[in-house]
Sequence to fold (363 residues):
Amino acid sequence: MAYSEATVLAGGLAHIPVVIGFFGLIQKFILNKTNPKTAEKSIDSSVNIKTNESAQSTPTKTIKKPDHSKVPVNTYRPKNPFLGTVKENYSLLKKGAIGRVNHITFDLSQGDPLLKYVEGQSIGIIPAGEDSKGKPHKIRLYSIASTRHGDDFKGNTVSLCVRQLQYEKDGETIDGVCSTYLCDIAPGEKVKITGPVGKEMLLPEDEDANIIMLATGTGIAPMRAYLRRMFDPNEIEKNNWNFKGKAWLFMGAPKTANLLYDEDFESYKAKFPKNLKYTKAISREQKNPKGGRMYIQDRVLEHADELFSLIENPKTHIYLCGLKGMEPGIDEAMNKAASSKGLDWSKLRPQLKKEGRWHVETY
Fold:
């Protein structure tokens, strides 16, 4: 997944209505479960849960947020980037797919210091060359698609999942500067890399956590890192972390040929059927209950009850990554789910944010 520095903030702000809707619904659901008579009242779970005067003697509910103080950030900055070497660059798409998406791996072994990172972070790429004004190209941020051990498990590479951006302007097809640069780059070439950055999309340390992942397109990048860390045999051998919870990936794509890392995910699901669910929404090949195209929001609505049962568990985290365009659809789906249950979904987001249980990155 890629986004410029400007769109990091813009993408996050644009997605706030979805998050408000999604987590508000969850809050009302949980309140109805625990105390139907007071379910209409709001919660401030950062200190205490009080729904009426008689509840003042209720023990304080404390949720310990993860300590990310040791997570590496900004080892390399834009003014002094690391010069990494392209190790491999190959297409992730199958015959008949739409567009162009590549998996690109960079060798970090020559770094001093070594550029270390953890799952859920991003790195910056500075494209070679200059813009139309003769100035160096601006940095673009990309979500990391590999675990901290890298694709070869040696701990000195980083991988990205990059879609070539193309758009029409005045009847002309315009190629994205950095995405085209990366998709075209050959093994052995040098690339300016910065980072790592970001703590919003990090995994919880709890081995019993539940992880719900909603992704479209190259928004799968951080999810790929999470799933490798959880289920890849080599990762399990290397990690002092043995995932025991439930993981559920919702993946949206236009065609089957556009499903990214699909064979890996299917393999994980086959080996760990009790721990991983993998739900696909293939818009141009599948139909929703109304006969229209199947989108990720349709799958969310389809599994609303089971999702809410998971989210009721305080160890459940939700990760949303992909195009901002997924926002209206998910918002509509959650509104429908709320209405069908007589629920209001506008109250839980602040609670979950304080607890560090919701994670959103859109572009």
